[in-house]
Amino acid sequence: MNRIHQKLQEDKKILSIYFTAGYPSLNDTVKIIQDLEKNGVDMIEIGLPFSDPLADGPTIQASSTQALKNGMTTALLFQQLKDIRKSVSIPLIVMGYFNPVLQYGVEKFCKECQEIGIDGLILPDLPLDVYQENYETIFKKYGLVNVFLITPQTSDARIRQIDTASDGFIYMVSSASVTGSQDGFGNNQETYFERIADMKLKNPQVVGFGINNSETFLQATKQAKGAIIGSAFIKFLTQHGVDKIGDFVKGIRK
Amino acid sequence: MNYNVDEKGYYGEFGGAFIPEMLYPNVENLRQQYLKIMAEPSFKKEFDQLLKDYVGRPSPLYFAKRLSEKYNTKVYLKREDLNHTGAHKVNNTIGQILMAKRLGKSRIIAETGAGQHGVATATVCALMGMECIVYMGEIDIARQAPNVARMKMLGAEVRPAKSGSRTLKDATNEAIRDWINNPVDTHYIIGSAIGPHPYPDMVTRFQSIISEEIKWQLKEKEGRENPDYVVACIGGGSNAAGTFYHFLHEKEVGIIAVEAAGLGVDSGESAATSVLGKMGIIHGCKTLLMQTTDGQITEPYSISAGLDYPGVGPMHAHLYKTGRAEFIAVTDDEAMQAGMVLSKLEGIIPAIESSHAFAILETRKFQPEEVVVFNLSGRGDKDLDTYIKYFKL
User: Fold this and answer.
1) pTM for the whole thing?
2) B116 CA: distance to closest CA in chain A (Å)
3) For FRET with B249, which of A35, A60, B92, B166 sits at 20 to 30 Å CA-CA?
4) Is the peptide bond before B146 cis (omega within 30 degrees of 0)?
5) Residue A45, helix vs strand vs coil
6) Which residue range(s) make up the domain with B221?
7) Which of A103, A126, A153 sits opposite B183 (nearest CB)?
8) The complex's ipTM?
């Protein structure tokens, strides 16, 4: 059993944090991960920066651009993470776009993830059918959970299909938006959260996009198993640097 | 060998739809509908009527006598520069706006580099009374002021893309983000033969009117439908796709795609994707693209804003890989000189994109009896500033 599965079995709401590797500074990666765990975060998405992140809003794109300027590469990220399992035990997921993975070599990428102790991947532009046809066996060989997204526009039939193909959790995008582009949840989201809860999927759902404080975290996790915060954390790092990560986490989970 | 798209959306190993789930419902709906809608008699009738009465088709196939004499071969020009709005782009935007209406969409978004596709989109939106938002790189807005003004006169809102390199690829990213944020009422009119399936095929089909006309026009002039060669410039590749389409499976027709070498293929300032590119994923499709070894997409360069794209459409990647098409890279200087030659010999000032195609006449020798059809994809009015600066006119 992978760390993601273990974590999801715990009787608590999951707080997951996304950050872009190589931001604010090139070598902040390990410190950010350690501090997040120390402060009670349950799971971390490590963002592999990409030049053209088309599902992301301005905040994450700007952090990716800066990270690439700082010199972040796939090989360097793996180098930075090689001893991470000596100090960190919560689930770690690499989130990025498919092209850098494809150029690195999908099998080589997965193999090195396993060696480091990465538990899963989120690649929003790797579609379900391509994954199943070409890459599922490789991901599974290296014990990696692949996480798919659903949105309010995703049909019930497709949600069922994604649920069947998933073995971990489903990343539930809270609204029709790119990352970091909204403020609070309204009736549409409530209806959507209930609709998904009523589907009684086999995989737990973790909500992402639009969660930026304790209120939205509570709202998002009323029905879902957990929530992911990305842009709000990147903004915090931009303003406060990497020394006060505890303050951010405490602000979410009061 | 099949050069058309297969049922899964691929041209050989290229193509597909590598899109985030947020775009899936729209792209999937389009995939299921586009061929059905294009085959509807009412769609065909409206499309043909608008191409005839509004765009001014058929565009002439013109025998360029003086150019033919200079290069000692039979040169024909397909005059897409005479279309309304001044380029081939409008063939696609007419098709897609009719598609959008039938899909029940009320809001149109588009990306543009030099502004030609933006103008063609704003034009059809004005025609149909639809809301139009065009994303354009901040840098391109500054260097293409007349086209920005045209779009505004036509009622479109031009939104600057301020992210990344602030040019065409970033404008495309911004348009895709807009579509993610507005999935219900919006249709995205992509301007080139790129993007997730079915876009490359749909755009190619709308542009294929170019080669359809060449066939019957050449029959009238030369007594045969097939030329010895068809030649087109290629950035993303929509004019090339339209020029090649009906000749892809005609073995005796040579296909030549002309890329922008910029300051030279090895100069670091180039857009010659077939030489410099590697298989990867850009804007939702698997194709040849210019990128770092780490898979980050790099910024191309060409004097011509319309060829300044880091990838080529998946159909063209397949034509390159299989050897069906010959790819030639032409530098800024060669293209500018060719533009001048055409102006002086034929009285036609071409778009700098199109000038790239003609530039091969200097180096690629054809036989005197061979018929070579060049797609003159656009007129040079928009490039006057660049011509003025380059030739100190």
Assistant:
1) 0.96
2) 23
3) B92
4) no
5) strand
6) 56-87+208-391
7) A153
8) 0.94
